[in-house]
Design goal:
Oligomer: single chain
Low-confidence stretches: 2-47
Helix content: 25-40%
Mean pLDDT: 88
Shape: globular
């Protein structure tokens, strides 16, 4: 994965988890989360007030004395839970842009209705977090760490509530990350049989088929994954992120950089050397803190890239919101771009 938008250019956006989860204090029953309806209402109410557990992708058995009510999550994970009908009280991570609008990672959430504990990397207001009386913290994990939980304050944070992480790196692929996020949402009360969810999953599966069809119908299209900053162009490996690995399974042919960083995520290229790799299509990091096509017009080497000259630069949702609704759109856009792409590299 390319560096986080808020980190210095030479750093990757990964955080050390460093130790076991903090022990959770006694939690109050969540009460009216599931109101009794019909003959099964009493059973639902009893289940809602009973113990809750979930085995996360760090291999931890996360448990509380009742189903978590006050959930705090990384912004992108919170956006996915929102799509499943699971509300959160607070978020941390890119949520609001400088002009006050929702960040791309906020998805469909109404950001005015959540407490923003931190809007950039290494920012997490522990006092505000404690005031929310959290029952559960939820985030993603790339390499065994809690994404966007600051190293300096992680011990304090993890003592206030148990934490659960969903893998979006390592061996994870997009479809697997989607399944695991849906599993977590279900454990927190989401109805995966709801029409909107069923329809979204069907749309995702249809979109995946469209990508397969596009790669077969237009073979040999080479795709370069990149991220732009003022001084460097990052050429990313397709081997470390859940989305890119899944795209490969669907037949997408990627350009793999030769000299990757220590973690194997990307190769840092000066703008003088940004044209090192030829490609027919460029998937460009869409995160708020990265340079977008309009920002890159002044970079001579960018303008000379074959894919740029051909108008074959498409946004990459570098940190997907792992709901079927949001990921279906990603695949649909990818399929459309691959269908019409011409060999220019």
């Amino acid at each position: 994965m390319p560096k986080s938008r808020t980190l210095p250019l030479t750093r990757r956006g990964f955080i050390a988890a460093g130790g076991a989860l903090g022990l959770v204090a006694a939690l109050a029953a969540c009460g009216g989360t599931d109101s009794a309806k019909g003959d099964g209402g009493a059973d639902k109410a009893a289940a809602a007030s009973g113990p809750w557990s979930f085995k996360d992708d760090l291999g931890k058995d996360v448990s509380t004395k009742s189903k978590p009510k006050n959930v705090v999550a990384f912004t992108g994970t919170a956006a996915a839970l929102y799509d499943y009908g699971v509300p959160v009280k607070g978020v941390f991570g890119p949520t609001k842009t400088a002009d006050g609008k929702p960040d791309v990672q906020a998805g469909s959430m109404d950001i005015s209705k959540v407490e923003i504990l931190g809007n950039v990397y290494d920012e997490f207001n522990v006092e505000k977090y404690a005031a929310l009386q959290p029952d559960l913290l939820v985030t993603n994990t790339w390499d065994g760490t809690y994404w966007y939980v600051p190293e300096a304050s992680k011990d304090k944070i993890l003592k206030l509530a148990p934490a659960a992480a969903i893998s979006v790196g390592g061996d994870a692929t997009l479809d697997k990350a989607l399944e695991r996020t849906a599993d977590l949402a279900k454990s927190l009360g989401a109805d995966l049989d709801a029409k909107t969810t069923v329809d979204a999953k069907a749309r995702f599966e249809a979109a995946a088929a469209k990508v397969r069809e596009a790669t077969k119908a237009n073979p040999g299209i080479k795709v370069l994954v990149g991220s732009g900053s003022a001084d460097l162009f990052y050429a990313s490996s397709p081997k470390t992120s859940a989305d890119l690995k899944y795209f490969e399974q669907l037949g997408v042919e990627f350009v793999t950089p030769e000299k990757l960083d220590e973690g194997g995520f990307f190769e840092s290229l000066s703008w003088e050397n940004a044209g090192k790799y030829k490609a027919d299509v460029i998937l460009l990091d869409n995160r708020t803190g990265t340079l977008q096509p309009q920002d890159l017009k002044s970079k001579a080497t960018w303008a000379e890239m074959p894919a740029v000259k051909a108008g074959q630069v498409i946004p990459r949702v570098t940190e997907p919101i792992y709901s079927y609704d949001k990921c279906a759109q990603i695949l649909e856009d990818l399929a459309k771009s691959l269908q019409s792409a011409k060999k220019v590299g």
